[in-house]
Amino acid sequence: MPFSIVNSERTIQCPICGKYISRQPYQKKGLVWEGTDLSKYTIYRCSYCDVVFSDPIENAIKTYSEDTGGAGKRFDFYLQQGMRPKYLHFGHKQFLRRGKVYGKTLLDVGCGLGSFLYAAKERYTVTGIDCNKRQIEISRKCYNLTDVHPLTIEQFIQDYHQRRFDVVTFFETLEHISNPNEFIISVKKALNPKGYIGISVPNVDQADFYFPPMGPPGHVTGWSVRSLRNFLELNGFQIKKIVVKKYPTHELGEWFIWRLPIENIKQQILSEERLSLFDKLKILLMEVFEKILRVGLPILLWPLVIIGGSFLKGPQIFCIAQLKSSADTHI
Asked: In which band, very low, low, confident or very high, does the pLDDT at 3 lie, cut at 50, 70 and 90?
């Protein structure tokens, strides 16, 4: 159920801590929200708990429960070929690193194609849920995962109310949820006493020169280290570990390429009805130039990463937290 923001002329209620803050939009020099129409949404930042949120705040999960465009075709290809997508992002790798184990049973909320569950099943008895039925189908066929379900966490709790887990993970999920407090209550109901959670979220405070943060309708909340800590502690968790992703050189190289108008020029050329030999040559030269940049820039940029890595705020946050007491699971 979406969080109902209490509107007034001067104040607005934070969906996390419930405090009322000044109706002053969050602004930062040079800040651009990717994919956001600011004529439809206003972005605020709570001065108490530090969370960033949109008004209106609408659950973005439906967007990800439907396959459209290239994503749907990619899923079809995986199914036809029986391929196993091996993508593990920052949060997955942090959770699995150094052989650390947080119990025996694991529930992954928003499990996607199943690549993380496939890697984690060497250490855990794994269960996964995702609102996207196609992705669940892929996880079953490509990874031979049997305990995966096309359900939200609320639906899973209702259908499997007796099941409990030692750890619940939700990577790149929290920012899509319109009511994080209701979501975390459901997560706690799925946990064993003193169970663990593993989380990753985009860092709303990432360095300004990096890719712009995504706003609504895709991301309806934005999280910093401070706001994530406040949110979890407010909901009965003890923080065990927080890690901010550093800037890999290859990602800085991608950022530089993204800033260049190469793709726009290529699309403009390709839009012509007939391509001349010169047009084809230009496209080929631009593709070669991109490849040179992708190889050369990481080498040139590594001093920046070493020097700036200690104070530049990276693009993602990973966190491990534990319920403080067994009473916290009975909401």
From this structure: very low
